[in-house]
Structure formats: C-alpha cells, structure tokens
Write a structure and sequence with these properties.
The protein is of the alpha+beta class. It has three helices and five strands, in the order βαββββαα.
Length: 93
C-alpha cells in the first residue's frame, strides 16, 4: 500500500473532509510538516463548467491534487471545520 502524505495544509483538510483520517503529523522540520493519512477517499466531487458536483472515483493522491490545483474540486460544507481540526493536529504537542 502506498503512503498517503501531503505537506499542504488545505489539501490535508480536503482529505479529512472527504473522510480520511490523519494518522500522524511529522514535525521534524518545523517549516515543512507532513500529514500522514490512513487511506484516500474512494470518491471526490468535481465541478465542471458550473454544473452540479459529480462524484469521481480517485486512485491516488496525484489525481486529487490535480483537481485541487485546477479548482475543479468541490469543497464539502464541513471543510472549514476540517481545516480547524488539521490546524489543531499541527499545533498539538
């Protein structure tokens, strides 16, 4: 199984909002923390051409990153709460 690791805080919050769990946060380098996840979500929702969000099956983190960067990824309503929880995990002792 491939490790699921990201250093992007907002991408980490997206993964949490789609149901992934943070397993650990690597804080060895204070400027480059890495979030480790248990699994990828099976589906994310994609918005294309102002249509309704459609479910899209994902196979790896690179796919989710490409949707995120291209601004096609739908942010679930719980995203802000998930962002707060990821920040809490980052600053927890």
């Amino acid at each position: 199984m491939t490790e699921i690791i990201t250093k992007d805080l907002h991408l980490a919050a997206i993964l949490v909002s789609y149901g992934s769990q943070i397993v650990s946060v690597d804080k060895k380098d204070p400027k480059r923390q890495h979030f480790h996840f248990d699994k990828l979500p099976l589906y994310v929702y994609i918005c294309d051409n102002a249509n309704e969000p459609m479910p899209e099956r994902v196979n790896d983190l690179a796919e989710i990153k490409s949707y995120f960067i291209s601004k096609k990824l739908f942010f679930p309503p719980n995203f802000l709460d998930c962002l707060r929880s990821v920040k809490s995990a980052l600053f927890a002792e």
